[in-house]
Amino acid sequence: MKSTKRLDLAIEKLYTAFQNNSLHPECCKQCAVGNILDNNDSWKHLSDQHGSLNLNYVGLVNQNFGRKFNGYSPIELLQIEAQFLKACGYQLPLHYKNKRPKNSTDKDVLFLGLSAVVKFLCRLDELPDVMDCSELFQYEIKPKVIENLNVI
């Protein structure tokens, strides 16, 4: 399977962050997008709230001018982060009153977030999910089972 450079780099950075315990959902430099952008938090100025899908004025200007950050547009970055946070168990946008996981840096929580991000990154590049092993085992999960898994 042929991949894109931005996908390869993003997965490599996320893998490294996960293995080095430097992935933290609530930190703009160490979250999924923060790691994809080389631990830079400048992306947080694209929206008014962490986890929001709404671009603010700065985000809209960058989006309309076609600006890319390590290959990703401002709206794609917000979507990536939202996927990560939702899969980690956060209610969006991030707010101290909203639902959050008990231990946000638990490896199981982070793995769920990373799996969702990788799936989304593959979808952005119109590639099959590299984390999907159903073809390897020649097995397809039934929709009802998937629905039950999402409830957990």
What does this entry look like structurally?
It is a single chain. This protein has one domain (5-151). It contains six helices and no strands. Helix 1 (5-19) packs antiparallel against helix 5 (107-124) and helix 4 (74-88) runs antiparallel to helix 5. The model has no long low-confidence stretch (mean pLDDT 88). The chain is globular and about 45 Å long. It has 152 residues and is mostly helical.
What can be said about this structure in brief?
It contains six helices and no strands. By secondary structure, it is an all-alpha fold.
Order of helices and strands: HHHHHH
Helix percent band: 40-55%
Shape designation: globular
**Count of β-strands:** 0
Runs in which pLDDT lies below 50 for 5 or more consecutive residues are none
Biggest pleated sheet: none
**Number of structural domains:** 1
End-to-end gap = 32 Å
What is the helix tally? 6
Structural class: mainly alpha
Task: Estimate what percentage of residues fall within beta strands.
Answer: under 5%
Mean pLDDT: 88
| Rg value | 16 Å
